[in-house]
Amino acid sequence: MRTVLISGASVAGPALAWWLRRYGFRPTVVERAPALREGGYKVDIRGAALDVIDRMGLRDEVRRRDTGMRLARLVNSSGAQLATMDAQLFGGREGDDAELMRGDLARILADATRDVEYLFDDSIAAMTPTADGVEVRFERGPGRTFDLVIGADGLHSTVRRLAFGPESAYLRPLGHHISIFSVRGEFGEDRTELMHPAPGRTVGVYRTAGAADAKALFLFPSPERGPDHRDVAGQKALLAAAFGGVGWRVPRLLDAMWEAPDFYLDSISQVRMDHWSTGRIGLVGDAGYGPSPASGQGTSLSLVGAYVLATSLAAAGGDPAAGFADYERRMRPFVEVNQRLAERNLKGMVLRSAAQIRFQTLMLRMMPHLPGRETMIRRVTEPIRKAATAITLPDAPAPRPA
Description:
The chain has 14 helices and 18 strands. The model has no long low-confidence stretch (mean pLDDT 93). α2 (47-55) packs across α10 (298-315) and α10 runs antiparallel to α11 (320-339). Helices cover 36% and strands 25% of the residues. The chain has helices spanning 12-22, 47-55, 59-64, 87-90, 102-111, 158-164, 232-242, 250-257, 286-289, 298-315, 320-339, 341-349, 354-366, 373-388; strands at 3-7, 26-31, 42-45, 71-75, 81-86, 98-101, 117-120, 124-129, 134-138, 144-146, 148-151, 171-184, 192-198, 201-207, 213-221, 264-271, 277-278, 281-283. It has a domain at 3-68 and 97-170 and 270-344: FAD/NAD(P)-binding domain (3-Layer(bba) Sandwich).
């Protein structure tokens, strides 16, 4: 049980490859994109995930790429400030919690796995289990056989579909869509998150420290039927229709959307599965238990899941069933408590009425002046902190050569 094919080169895949390599496995990472996906959106690393980053020796690299965000400002349709708050509180972060761009984290992990084989511009087309491995047919490259195959390929996982069935059986939509794309830096303010709430819709723009461009963020109720997740033109048309008539900078942002090189739109959905492995095929990160962007914990679950899976497989020796079983036993309670954050968070991210917007604005204005302010802040961050630390990481086995 030494050769492992990992599908996906974002966060979970390279993190898993790093740990497997340390434990003497020979991982190969296959990625559909022609190169490492740069850019993306802000991601948080908290609690147990920070411990994983420390055990990888990557804390300094992560800190060097911190977003440096300082403020969050709520604005009305004319751009006038309604309320302001510290960026750490706005993001539910405290203490050593880290925030960086997803693309920066992917680059850190890729650089740390330079001794791992990467197959870009390819994907798994078919998998055939055998008595002691998995025969894999690729879309472009020649077929190969691996001892194990792990899907780390996100919400729309190819490995999950091939091994477990259609994604409709496992995706649990939370009733909203999210869109993120890059715009010119002039749309944002340095190290500031600008948010404009409208009834049932939220739009934001942020620019991180040293960034030449800014990121636009849109949240809105899901349509009854939407375009396929690879139909980019259809997705852009959907977003334009959903935010028609919204003020502030929205018309200009939608104009810029048509030229955005990194446009992303998808449903805010969770992946719920009874088991994350079948035979010699397993899942990690969003592919197996994506908590949705509304949880704020997807990246942390990917990092912790990669560590626990690799550690469990290493401890199991040549018994993949035992390794997968130990991985699930350790991870499932952690996954469940973090998935529960999503619906709670989503209620505060998209407000349904003008009255709710007025109430939220009033509370944000009053918070700096209220007695017991620190207690109120702890109540905001406590559910996230508890979820982020709701696992005891297993000890890492001693490194061994491949």
